[in-house]
Protein backbone atom coordinates (compact mmCIF):
# COMPACT_ATOMS: atom_id res chain seq x y z
CA UNK A 1 0.00 0.00 0.00
CA UNK A 2 2.78 2.44 0.97
CA UNK A 3 4.78 1.60 -2.17
CA UNK A 4 1.77 2.11 -4.43
CA UNK A 5 1.16 5.53 -2.83
CA UNK A 6 4.66 6.66 -3.82
CA UNK A 7 4.39 5.16 -7.30
CA UNK A 8 1.10 7.01 -7.88
CA UNK A 9 3.07 10.22 -7.45
CA UNK A 10 3.90 9.84 -11.14
CA UNK A 11 4.10 13.56 -11.88
CA UNK A 12 6.85 14.01 -9.31
CA UNK A 13 8.70 10.93 -10.56
CA UNK A 14 8.59 12.32 -14.09
CA UNK A 15 9.91 15.70 -12.91
CA UNK A 16 12.70 13.92 -11.00
CA UNK A 17 13.72 12.01 -14.14
CA UNK A 18 13.79 15.24 -16.13
CA UNK A 19 15.95 16.86 -13.44
CA UNK A 20 18.42 13.97 -13.57
CA UNK A 21 18.62 14.25 -17.36
CA UNK A 22 19.23 18.01 -17.22
CA UNK A 23 22.21 17.47 -14.92
CA UNK A 24 23.51 14.95 -17.46
CA UNK A 25 23.16 17.53 -20.26
CA UNK A 26 25.05 20.18 -18.30
CA UNK A 27 27.92 17.85 -17.40
CA UNK A 28 28.30 15.67 -20.49
CA UNK A 29 30.95 17.84 -22.18
CA UNK A 30 33.56 18.29 -19.43
CA UNK A 31 32.12 16.48 -16.42
CA UNK A 32 31.13 17.91 -13.09
CA UNK A 33 32.07 21.52 -12.36
CA UNK A 34 35.17 21.89 -10.18
CA UNK A 35 35.94 24.97 -8.10
CA UNK A 36 38.60 25.46 -5.40
CA UNK A 37 36.11 24.28 -2.77
CA UNK A 38 35.41 21.15 -4.83
CA UNK A 39 39.09 20.22 -4.78
CA UNK A 40 39.21 20.60 -1.01
CA UNK A 41 36.21 18.27 -0.69
CA UNK A 42 37.63 15.79 -3.20
CA UNK A 43 41.08 15.53 -1.64
CA UNK A 44 39.58 15.04 1.85
CA UNK A 45 37.19 12.42 0.43
CA UNK A 46 40.06 10.51 -1.18
CA UNK A 47 41.94 10.63 2.11
CA UNK A 48 38.90 9.34 3.99
CA UNK A 49 38.37 6.47 1.54
CA UNK A 50 42.04 5.49 1.70
CA UNK A 51 43.04 6.18 5.30
CA UNK A 52 39.92 7.10 7.27
CA UNK A 53 41.13 10.69 7.78
CA UNK A 54 39.92 13.96 6.26
CA UNK A 55 43.29 15.49 5.41
CA UNK A 56 43.32 17.72 2.35
CA UNK A 57 45.91 17.73 -0.44
CA UNK A 58 48.25 19.93 1.62
CA UNK A 59 48.23 17.31 4.41
CA UNK A 60 46.22 19.58 6.74
CA UNK A 61 42.83 18.73 8.30
CA UNK A 62 39.86 20.27 6.55
CA UNK A 63 38.64 23.05 8.87
CA UNK A 64 37.31 25.79 6.59
CA UNK A 65 34.44 23.42 5.82
CA UNK A 66 32.69 20.82 8.01
CA UNK A 67 33.58 17.17 7.51
CA UNK A 68 30.37 15.37 6.56
CA UNK A 69 30.28 16.17 2.84
CA UNK A 70 33.86 14.92 2.24
CA UNK A 71 33.03 11.86 4.37
CA UNK A 72 29.89 11.32 2.27
CA UNK A 73 31.95 11.50 -0.94
CA UNK A 74 34.58 9.22 0.61
CA UNK A 75 31.96 6.60 1.51
CA UNK A 76 30.62 6.70 -2.06
CA UNK A 77 34.18 6.37 -3.37
CA UNK A 78 34.93 3.47 -1.01
CA UNK A 79 31.73 1.57 -1.95
CA UNK A 80 31.78 2.16 -5.71
CA UNK A 81 35.50 2.51 -6.36
CA UNK A 82 34.69 5.56 -8.51
CA UNK A 83 36.54 8.80 -7.79
CA UNK A 84 34.27 11.68 -6.68
CA UNK A 85 35.14 13.77 -9.75
CA UNK A 86 34.11 10.93 -12.08
CA UNK A 87 31.07 10.02 -9.99
CA UNK A 88 29.95 13.64 -9.64
CA UNK A 89 27.49 13.86 -12.56
CA UNK A 90 25.58 10.73 -11.54
CA UNK A 91 25.74 11.45 -7.81
CA UNK A 92 24.54 15.03 -8.24
CA UNK A 93 21.89 13.95 -10.72
CA UNK A 94 20.53 11.48 -8.18
CA UNK A 95 20.55 14.07 -5.38
CA UNK A 96 18.82 16.64 -7.60
CA UNK A 97 16.20 14.06 -8.54
CA UNK A 98 15.72 13.30 -4.83
CA UNK A 99 15.29 17.03 -4.07
CA UNK A 100 12.64 17.31 -6.78
CA UNK A 101 10.85 14.19 -5.57
CA UNK A 102 10.82 15.27 -1.92
CA UNK A 103 9.60 18.72 -2.98
CA UNK A 104 6.68 17.14 -4.81
CA UNK A 105 5.97 14.88 -1.85
CA UNK A 106 5.91 17.84 0.54
CA UNK A 107 3.67 19.93 -1.75
CA UNK A 108 1.28 16.98 -1.96
CA UNK A 109 1.03 17.17 1.86
CA UNK A 110 0.50 20.92 2.21
CA UNK A 111 -2.32 21.86 4.57
CA UNK A 112 -4.24 23.01 1.49
CA UNK A 113 -2.90 20.83 -1.31
CA UNK A 114 -3.47 21.33 -5.03
CA UNK A 115 -2.23 19.16 -7.87
CA UNK A 116 -2.35 22.13 -10.23
CA UNK A 117 -0.14 24.10 -7.84
CA UNK A 118 2.32 21.22 -7.73
CA UNK A 119 2.36 21.02 -11.53
CA UNK A 120 3.17 24.73 -11.72
CA UNK A 121 5.87 24.74 -9.03
CA UNK A 122 7.69 21.54 -10.04
CA UNK A 123 8.90 23.03 -13.38
CA UNK A 124 10.08 26.12 -11.49
CA UNK A 125 12.20 23.88 -9.24
CA UNK A 126 13.45 21.68 -12.10
CA UNK A 127 14.43 24.71 -14.22
CA UNK A 128 15.79 26.83 -11.38
CA UNK A 129 19.09 28.36 -12.47
CA UNK A 130 20.12 28.56 -8.81
CA UNK A 131 19.64 24.84 -8.18
CA UNK A 132 21.07 23.79 -11.54
CA UNK A 133 24.21 25.77 -10.84
CA UNK A 134 24.63 24.02 -7.49
CA UNK A 135 23.94 20.53 -8.81
CA UNK A 136 26.35 20.84 -11.73
CA UNK A 137 29.26 21.41 -9.33
CA UNK A 138 30.90 19.27 -6.68
CA UNK A 139 29.65 21.43 -3.81
CA UNK A 140 28.39 20.65 -0.32
CA UNK A 141 25.15 22.58 -1.00
CA UNK A 142 24.02 19.58 -3.05
CA UNK A 143 23.79 17.43 0.07
CA UNK A 144 22.78 20.30 2.36
CA UNK A 145 19.65 21.18 0.36
CA UNK A 146 18.61 17.52 0.35
CA UNK A 147 19.10 17.31 4.12
CA UNK A 148 17.00 20.46 4.59
CA UNK A 149 14.03 18.85 2.82
CA UNK A 150 14.47 15.65 4.84
CA UNK A 151 14.51 17.86 7.94
CA UNK A 152 11.19 19.44 6.90
CA UNK A 153 9.64 15.97 6.55
CA UNK A 154 11.01 14.75 9.88
CA UNK A 155 9.99 17.92 11.74
CA UNK A 156 6.44 17.67 10.40
CA UNK A 157 6.25 14.04 11.56
CA UNK A 158 7.42 15.10 15.01
CA UNK A 159 4.65 17.70 15.22
CA UNK A 160 2.13 15.00 14.31
CA UNK A 161 3.40 12.49 16.91
CA UNK A 162 5.40 14.38 19.58
CA UNK A 163 7.32 11.19 20.37
CA UNK A 164 10.86 11.09 21.69
CA UNK A 165 12.00 8.95 18.76
CA UNK A 166 10.70 11.42 16.16
CA UNK A 167 12.34 14.29 18.09
CA UNK A 168 15.74 12.57 18.13
CA UNK A 169 15.44 11.88 14.39
CA UNK A 170 14.76 15.57 13.70
CA UNK A 171 17.70 16.58 15.90
CA UNK A 172 20.04 14.08 14.22
CA UNK A 173 19.18 15.36 10.74
CA UNK A 174 19.80 18.91 11.98
CA UNK A 175 23.14 17.73 13.39
CA UNK A 176 24.13 16.25 10.02
CA UNK A 177 23.22 19.48 8.25
CA UNK A 178 25.57 21.40 10.58
CA UNK A 179 28.53 19.21 9.69
CA UNK A 180 27.65 19.48 6.01
CA UNK A 181 27.70 23.28 6.01
CA UNK A 182 28.33 25.56 8.97
CA UNK A 183 25.21 27.43 7.83
CA UNK A 184 23.39 24.33 9.09
CA UNK A 185 23.03 26.21 12.38
CA UNK A 186 20.01 27.74 10.64
CA UNK A 187 18.43 24.29 10.50
CA UNK A 188 18.96 23.95 14.27
CA UNK A 189 17.58 27.47 14.70
CA UNK A 190 14.50 26.70 12.62
CA UNK A 191 13.66 23.63 14.66
CA UNK A 192 14.42 25.33 17.97
CA UNK A 193 12.30 28.38 17.15
CA UNK A 194 9.29 26.29 16.12
CA UNK A 195 9.59 24.06 19.20
CA UNK A 196 9.70 27.16 21.35
CA UNK A 197 6.66 28.78 19.70
CA UNK A 198 4.58 25.61 19.53
CA UNK A 199 1.88 25.54 22.23
CA UNK A 200 0.75 21.93 21.90
CA UNK A 201 2.88 20.41 24.68
CA UNK A 202 2.71 20.91 28.45
CA UNK A 203 5.42 23.29 29.63
CA UNK A 204 7.56 20.66 31.39
CA UNK A 205 7.52 18.25 28.44
CA UNK A 206 8.20 21.12 26.05
CA UNK A 207 11.29 22.21 28.02
CA UNK A 208 12.58 18.62 28.09
CA UNK A 209 12.09 18.25 24.33
CA UNK A 210 13.84 21.55 23.61
CA UNK A 211 16.81 20.51 25.78
CA UNK A 212 17.05 17.10 24.10
CA UNK A 213 16.77 18.68 20.68
CA UNK A 214 19.46 21.23 21.51
CA UNK A 215 21.94 18.68 22.83
CA UNK A 216 21.51 16.17 19.98
CA UNK A 217 21.35 18.73 17.16
CA UNK A 218 24.50 20.53 18.33
CA UNK A 219 26.47 17.37 19.18
CA UNK A 220 28.16 16.68 15.83
CA UNK A 221 29.01 20.33 15.27
CA UNK A 222 30.60 20.57 18.73
CA UNK A 223 32.65 17.43 18.03
CA UNK A 224 33.70 18.80 14.64
CA UNK A 225 34.78 22.13 16.17
CA UNK A 226 36.66 20.45 19.03
CA UNK A 227 38.60 18.33 16.53
CA UNK A 228 39.37 21.50 14.57
CA UNK A 229 40.73 23.22 17.67
CA UNK A 230 42.82 20.23 18.72
CA UNK A 231 44.30 19.73 15.26
CA UNK A 232 44.72 23.33 14.05
CA UNK A 233 43.97 25.57 17.08
CA UNK A 234 41.22 27.17 15.01
CA UNK A 235 37.44 26.71 15.08
CA UNK A 236 36.71 27.15 11.37
CA UNK A 237 40.01 28.28 9.90
CA UNK A 238 41.28 31.86 9.56
CA UNK A 239 38.45 34.38 9.21
CA UNK A 240 38.82 38.04 8.31
CA UNK A 241 36.43 40.81 9.39
CA UNK A 242 33.83 41.82 6.83
CA UNK A 243 34.38 44.73 4.45
CA UNK A 244 30.74 44.87 3.29
CA UNK A 245 28.22 46.64 5.55
CA UNK A 246 24.67 45.43 6.18
CA UNK A 247 23.15 47.67 3.49
CA UNK A 248 25.46 46.27 0.82
CA UNK A 249 24.79 42.68 1.83
CA UNK A 250 21.08 43.42 1.74
CA UNK A 251 21.48 44.78 -1.80
CA UNK A 252 23.55 41.81 -2.96
CA UNK A 253 20.89 39.44 -1.61
CA UNK A 254 18.28 41.43 -3.50
CA UNK A 255 20.22 41.15 -6.76
CA UNK A 256 20.15 37.37 -6.29
CA UNK A 257 16.38 37.53 -5.78
CA UNK A 258 16.12 39.61 -8.97
CA UNK A 259 18.11 37.00 -10.87
CA UNK A 260 15.85 34.25 -9.51
CA UNK A 261 12.85 36.22 -10.76
CA UNK A 262 14.56 36.30 -14.20
CA UNK A 263 14.84 40.10 -14.01
CA UNK A 264 17.75 41.94 -15.62
CA UNK A 265 20.54 43.99 -13.99
CA UNK A 266 18.68 47.09 -15.16
CA UNK A 267 16.07 46.27 -12.52
CA UNK A 268 18.51 45.92 -9.61
CA UNK A 269 17.16 49.19 -8.21
CA UNK A 270 14.43 47.14 -6.53
CA UNK A 271 16.96 44.74 -4.97
CA UNK A 272 17.02 46.11 -1.42
CA UNK A 273 13.25 46.81 -1.27
CA UNK A 274 12.71 43.23 -2.46
CA UNK A 275 14.66 41.85 0.50
CA UNK A 276 12.84 44.13 2.96
CA UNK A 277 9.57 42.88 1.47
CA UNK A 278 10.74 39.30 2.00
CA UNK A 279 11.74 39.97 5.63
CA UNK A 280 8.52 41.82 6.43
CA UNK A 281 6.28 39.36 4.56
CA UNK A 282 7.79 36.18 6.00
CA UNK A 283 7.97 37.61 9.53
CA UNK A 284 4.31 38.62 9.27
CA UNK A 285 3.40 35.17 7.96
CA UNK A 286 5.22 33.50 10.85
CA UNK A 287 3.42 35.72 13.39
CA UNK A 288 0.08 35.10 11.67
CA UNK A 289 0.62 31.33 11.76
CA UNK A 290 1.59 31.60 15.42
CA UNK A 291 -1.63 33.43 16.25
CA UNK A 292 -3.72 30.96 14.22
CA UNK A 293 -1.87 27.92 15.62
CA UNK A 294 -0.61 26.86 12.18
CA UNK A 295 3.06 26.65 13.11
CA UNK A 296 3.43 22.95 12.37
CA UNK A 297 2.47 22.90 8.68
CA UNK A 298 5.00 22.28 5.93
CA UNK A 299 4.32 25.75 4.61
CA UNK A 300 5.21 27.42 7.91
CA UNK A 301 8.29 25.24 8.39
CA UNK A 302 9.48 26.44 4.97
CA UNK A 303 8.67 30.07 5.80
CA UNK A 304 10.59 29.86 9.08
CA UNK A 305 13.65 28.26 7.50
CA UNK A 306 13.76 30.76 4.61
CA UNK A 307 13.57 33.66 7.06
CA UNK A 308 16.18 32.27 9.47
CA UNK A 309 18.56 31.23 6.68
CA UNK A 310 18.26 34.48 4.73
CA UNK A 311 18.88 36.64 7.80
CA UNK A 312 21.81 34.44 8.86
CA UNK A 313 23.60 34.83 5.52
CA UNK A 314 23.08 38.61 5.43
CA UNK A 315 24.19 39.12 9.05
CA UNK A 316 27.16 36.73 8.90
CA UNK A 317 28.40 38.48 5.74
CA UNK A 318 28.19 41.75 7.69
CA UNK A 319 30.53 40.51 10.42
CA UNK A 320 32.76 37.97 8.64
CA UNK A 321 34.45 38.20 5.25
CA UNK A 322 33.72 35.56 2.65
CA UNK A 323 32.74 35.59 -1.00
CA UNK A 324 30.15 38.20 -1.91
CA UNK A 325 26.58 37.02 -1.35
CA UNK A 326 25.58 35.17 -4.50
CA UNK A 327 23.13 32.61 -5.81
CA UNK A 328 25.16 29.67 -4.53
CA UNK A 329 25.15 30.94 -0.94
CA UNK A 330 21.40 31.60 -0.98
CA UNK A 331 20.40 28.52 -3.02
CA UNK A 332 19.27 26.46 0.04
CA UNK A 333 16.43 28.94 0.61
CA UNK A 334 15.18 28.90 -3.02
CA UNK A 335 12.53 26.18 -2.64
CA UNK A 336 11.28 27.38 0.80
CA UNK A 337 11.18 30.93 -0.60
CA UNK A 338 9.03 29.82 -3.54
CA UNK A 339 6.68 27.92 -1.23
CA UNK A 340 6.40 30.74 1.28
CA UNK A 341 5.70 33.26 -1.49
CA UNK A 342 3.04 31.25 -3.31
CA UNK A 343 1.45 28.51 -1.17
CA UNK A 344 -0.98 30.91 0.53
CA UNK A 345 -2.64 31.51 -2.85
CA UNK A 346 -4.03 27.94 -2.85
CA UNK A 347 -6.26 28.59 0.16
CA UNK A 348 -7.56 31.87 -1.26
CA UNK A 349 -8.39 30.34 -4.64
CA UNK A 350 -10.09 27.27 -3.15
CA UNK A 351 -12.41 29.47 -1.09
CA UNK A 352 -13.72 31.15 -4.23
CA UNK A 353 -16.69 29.95 -6.24
CA UNK A 354 -16.16 28.24 -9.59
CA UNK A 355 -16.20 31.25 -11.94
CA UNK A 356 -14.14 33.61 -9.76
CA UNK A 357 -11.74 30.71 -9.15
CA UNK A 358 -11.18 30.36 -12.89
CA UNK A 359 -10.86 34.12 -13.25
CA UNK A 360 -8.05 34.16 -10.67
CA UNK A 361 -6.41 30.80 -11.40
CA UNK A 362 -5.83 31.26 -15.13
CA UNK A 363 -3.78 34.51 -14.86
CA UNK A 364 -1.78 33.11 -11.91
CA UNK A 365 -1.04 29.91 -13.83
CA UNK A 366 -0.02 31.98 -16.85
CA UNK A 367 2.42 33.99 -14.71
CA UNK A 368 4.02 30.81 -13.30
CA UNK A 369 4.28 29.25 -16.76
CA UNK A 370 5.87 32.44 -18.11
CA UNK A 371 8.32 32.38 -15.20
CA UNK A 372 9.17 28.74 -15.96
CA UNK A 373 9.62 29.58 -19.65
CA UNK A 374 11.98 32.49 -18.91
CA UNK A 375 13.96 30.15 -16.62
CA UNK A 376 14.09 27.61 -19.43
CA UNK A 377 15.50 30.21 -21.84
CA UNK A 378 18.25 31.10 -19.34
CA UNK A 379 19.05 27.41 -18.75
CA UNK A 380 19.11 26.67 -22.48
CA UNK A 381 21.62 29.44 -23.15
CA UNK A 382 23.83 28.23 -20.32
CA UNK A 383 23.59 24.63 -21.51
CA UNK A 384 24.41 25.71 -25.08
CA UNK A 385 27.50 27.58 -23.88
CA UNK A 386 28.71 24.81 -21.58
CA UNK A 387 28.32 22.11 -24.23
CA UNK A 388 30.99 24.00 -26.19
CA UNK A 389 33.10 25.25 -23.30
CA UNK A 390 32.43 23.20 -20.17
CA UNK A 391 31.35 24.16 -16.66
CA UNK A 392 33.28 27.29 -15.60
CA UNK A 393 36.09 26.17 -13.32
CA UNK A 394 38.97 23.75 -13.45
CA UNK A 395 37.31 21.49 -16.04
CA UNK A 396 36.43 24.16 -18.63
CA UNK A 397 38.39 24.70 -21.84
CA UNK A 398 40.43 27.58 -20.42
CA UNK A 399 42.11 24.95 -18.24
CA UNK A 400 41.71 21.86 -20.44
CA UNK A 401 43.40 23.56 -23.42
CA UNK A 402 45.97 25.56 -21.47
CA UNK A 403 49.64 24.69 -22.25
CA UNK A 404 50.50 25.54 -18.63
CA UNK A 405 47.86 23.14 -17.32
CA UNK A 406 48.99 20.49 -19.81
CA UNK A 407 52.59 20.82 -18.59
CA UNK A 408 51.55 20.41 -14.95
CA UNK A 409 49.47 17.33 -15.81
CA UNK A 410 52.38 15.71 -17.64
CA UNK A 411 55.15 16.73 -15.24
CA UNK A 412 53.26 15.72 -12.06
CA UNK A 413 55.72 17.62 -9.89
CA UNK A 414 58.88 15.88 -11.15
CA UNK A 415 60.68 19.17 -11.74
CA UNK A 416 60.56 20.11 -8.04
CA UNK A 417 63.30 19.04 -5.65
CA UNK A 418 62.01 16.87 -2.79
CA UNK A 419 61.62 18.66 0.53
CA UNK A 420 61.37 22.16 -0.96
CA UNK A 421 58.08 23.88 -0.15
CA UNK A 422 55.81 24.89 -3.05
CA UNK A 423 53.55 27.96 -2.95
CA UNK A 424 50.86 29.01 -5.39
CA UNK A 425 48.08 31.54 -5.83
CA UNK A 426 45.85 28.57 -6.71
CA UNK A 427 47.13 25.62 -4.69
CA UNK A 428 43.94 23.65 -5.42
CA UNK A 429 44.65 23.90 -9.14
CA UNK A 430 48.19 22.59 -8.63
CA UNK A 431 46.84 19.52 -6.86
CA UNK A 432 43.97 18.99 -9.32
CA UNK A 433 46.24 19.19 -12.36
CA UNK A 434 49.40 17.48 -11.13
CA UNK A 435 48.60 15.71 -7.86
CA UNK A 436 51.32 17.82 -6.22
CA UNK A 437 50.83 19.28 -2.76
CA UNK A 438 51.43 23.00 -2.36
CA UNK A 439 50.50 25.84 -0.05
CA UNK A 440 48.41 28.91 -0.72
CA UNK A 441 50.22 32.22 -0.69
CA UNK A 442 49.45 34.09 2.54
CA UNK A 443 46.66 36.64 2.85
CA UNK A 444 47.92 40.19 3.15
CA UNK A 445 45.68 40.68 6.18
CA UNK A 446 47.59 38.08 8.24
CA UNK A 447 50.94 39.82 8.78
CA UNK A 448 52.53 36.94 10.68
CA UNK A 449 51.82 34.55 7.80
CA UNK A 450 53.26 37.04 5.33
CA UNK A 451 56.44 37.37 7.39
CA UNK A 452 56.73 33.60 7.72
CA UNK A 453 56.52 33.30 3.93
CA UNK A 454 59.24 35.92 3.41
CA UNK A 455 61.44 34.16 5.98
CA UNK A 456 61.37 30.95 3.90
CA UNK A 457 64.88 30.32 2.56
CA UNK A 458 64.00 28.10 -0.37
CA UNK A 459 60.68 27.68 -2.17
CA UNK A 460 58.99 27.24 -5.54
CA UNK A 461 56.16 29.47 -6.72
CA UNK A 462 53.55 28.32 -9.24
CA UNK A 463 51.77 31.44 -10.45
CA UNK A 464 48.56 31.47 -12.53
CA UNK A 465 47.83 34.71 -14.37
CA UNK A 466 44.15 33.91 -14.83
CA UNK A 467 43.52 33.49 -11.09
CA UNK A 468 43.05 36.78 -9.31
CA UNK A 469 42.49 36.90 -5.58
CA UNK A 470 43.18 40.41 -4.33
CA UNK A 471 43.47 39.25 -0.71
CA UNK A 472 46.68 37.30 -1.43
CA UNK A 473 50.24 38.44 -1.96
CA UNK A 474 50.71 39.15 -5.65
CA UNK A 475 53.62 38.22 -7.89
CA UNK A 476 54.67 41.89 -7.99
CA UNK A 477 54.54 42.07 -4.18
CA UNK A 478 56.91 39.10 -3.91
CA UNK A 479 59.29 40.36 -6.60
CA UNK A 480 59.76 43.58 -4.64
CA UNK A 481 61.17 41.55 -1.73
CA UNK A 482 62.61 38.39 -3.31
CA UNK A 483 64.72 37.73 -6.36
CA UNK A 484 62.74 35.02 -8.16
CA UNK A 485 64.33 32.77 -10.75
CA UNK A 486 62.03 31.95 -13.67
CA UNK A 487 62.01 28.21 -14.43
CA UNK A 488 59.09 27.92 -16.86
CA UNK A 489 57.13 30.64 -18.63
CA UNK A 490 53.70 30.24 -20.20
CA UNK A 491 51.18 32.72 -21.55
CA UNK A 492 48.89 32.10 -18.59
CA UNK A 493 51.47 31.72 -15.83
CA UNK A 494 54.87 30.56 -14.80
CA UNK A 495 56.99 28.59 -12.33
CA UNK A 496 59.58 30.36 -10.20
CA UNK A 497 62.20 29.39 -7.63
CA UNK A 498 63.66 31.33 -4.76
CA UNK A 499 66.82 30.18 -2.99
CA UNK A 500 68.46 32.41 -0.40
CA UNK A 501 71.77 30.73 -1.22
CA UNK A 502 71.67 32.31 -4.67
CA UNK A 503 71.27 35.83 -3.30
CA UNK A 504 74.34 38.06 -3.61
CA UNK A 505 76.10 38.73 -0.29
UniProtKB/TrEMBL annotation:
Membrane spanning residue stretches: 12-31, 93-110, 116-135, 142-160, 166-197, 209-230, 268-288, 300-319, 325-346, 358-376
Domain of life: Bacteria
UniProt entry keywords in alphabetical sequence: Membrane, Transmembrane, Transmembrane helix
Protein name, per record: Uncharacterized protein
Coiled coil stretches, renumbered: none
